[in-house]
Write a structure and sequence with these properties.
Length: 413
């Protein structure tokens, strides 16, 4: 594998912010979602081969599998397969009651699944302020402020358990330093999966995986990659960028980066964010006040630049100071009205940090909240555009505000 710099600057990142201290992204994807919903209201279906789809009743000829339980997948039944083919592989119990290799079939009841999905998403919004819903059963959470790498596994287990105990359906969860890797991680150990990939393990985790595991590589581009001798994510990471770009264009470039564990997309809630923040960890705790203030200044600048891009005004300015090992302190100050004044953010943040002068500090953050938006729809527009530019992953032409992912799902390409 090529010797690539691990500390490549990420766009939008603070200079000097070490990669390993960046974001913590959690991806949730429900297991055989429609089938799990059916099992919730019909517990006898648990552990049974179960196909959810349309068109299997006598007299119907057309229809496709929406999803299959993992037991049905063992018979070769897959999403999007023609129902006739599914019936060949797994006959219906209703018609073959004596056959031990028969399965259950249920029609699609989207409204019911959407209701369950809403319950799941409510828990996710409770777990993080920043939730990016990408389909009916899938979302990314920015959990940087809610956990730390050392305890991320316990946090992920908590997420799974809450969904299981409060809603009653199983989920797979992946935690990684960016969206692309988190998606791969949640898929890694499905069903009932839990995979945590801390930054220092990222390259090693990705390297041996088949190129198909990289989200955005569907069957067509996978076979093109195989044609040029790229079989694993590690092969792509080690390949020269130029020929990849020539062949696959901008998307090739993006995939090449993701193969190397680099993905600059930020998890952003569709719609208006509630706060904007930036934080940075330091390897050796800071005790030197000038260094602390220097970092505060850089973070304040990053946050106000982001507010500017989003046309956001803020009423509250806050800081976060983490002392070793995990002593999290937040302080904030509210203003009388919404403003956009970078200098005021810098001064206020410095002022709030004063009480920590001389103490050991391992993480610093600056945040503005109580946001209002100068240009009414600007924030929505921007986050939508961000999403559509960000590669194949979140492209959902049908997914506009208010109907994110309803009935839409990803097919790879
Ligand atoms: P997926 O998350 O792709 O699949 P899944 O949840 O059924 O299974 P997995 O455990 O592998 O995550 O899609 C979520 C739901 O979207 C799925 O339950 C049914 C629906 N869907 C379709 O209707 N047609 C399709 O082709 C696919 C892929 C999904
Ligand atoms: Mg799923």
């Amino acid at each position: 594998m090529a010797d690539l710099p691990r500390d490549m600057p990420r766009e939008g990142r603070l200079p000097g912010a070490a990669e390993q201290d960046g974001d913590i992204v959690l991806h949730v994807d429900m297991d055989c979602f429609y089938a799990s919903c059916e099992r919730l209201r019909e517990p006898e279906l648990r552990g049974e081969p179960l196909v959810v789809g349309m068109g299997y009743d006598a007299g119907e000829e057309h229809g496709a599998v929406a999803t299959a339980s993992y037991e049905a997948r063992d018979y070769g039944v897959e999403s999007a397969m023609p129902i006739s083919k599914a019936l060949d592989r797994l006959p219906r119990v209703a018609e073959h009651p004596e056959d031990p290799d028969a399965g259950h079939y249920r029609p699609v009841d989207l409204e019911y699944y959407q209701e369950i999905a809403r319950d799941v998403k409510t828990i996710l919004y409770d777990l993080s302020e920043t939730v990016r819903e990408v389909s009916i059963d899938e979302a990314y959470l920015d959990v940087t402020e809610r956990t730390a790498w050392e305890v991320a596994e316990g946090f992920a287990r908590h997420v799974k358990q809450r969904i299981q105990s409060e809603v009653g359906v199983p989920a797979s969860v992946g935690v990684a330093p960016n969206m692309s890797a988190a998606k791969i991680a949640s898929d890694h150990d499905k069903p009932d999966g839990l995979t945590v990939v801390p930054p220092e393990d990222l390259r090693e985790f990705l390297e041996p995986l088949p190129i198909e595991d990289l989200h955005g590589v569907g069957p067509v581009s996978a076979s093109e990659f195989h044609d040029i001798g790229i079989d694993t994510i590690g092969d792509l990471a080690a390949a020269d960028l130029e020929p990849i770009e020539d062949r696959f264009g901008e998307r090739g470039r993006e995939l090449h980066f993701r193969a190397r564990g680099i993905d600059d997309r930020e998890v952003e809630t569709r719609g208006k964010p509630k706060s904007l923040s930036r934080e940075q960890s330091v390897g050796t705790p800071i005790t030197d006040p000038p260094e602390l203030y220097e970092r505060i200044d850089a973070l304040a600048r990053a946050v106000t630049e982001r507010a500017e891009r989003k046309d956001a005004l803020y009423r509250t300015i806050g800081i976060k100071i983490v002392k070793p090992p995990f002593d999290v302190n937040t302080r904030e100050r509210s203003l009388s009205g919404p403003v956009h004044e970078p200098e005021l953010v810098r001064e206020t943040a410095r002022d709030l940090a004063r009480e920590f002068e001389g103490e050991e500090v391992r993480k610093v953050g600056v945040r503005v909240s109580n946001l209002s938006f100068a240009e009414n729809e600007q924030a929505d527009l921007e986050s939508w555009e961000d999403g559509s530019e960000s590669g194949s992953e979140d492209r959902q032409p049908g997914a506009v505000k208010g109907q994110v992912g309803l009935g839409s799902f990803e097919t790879g390409e």
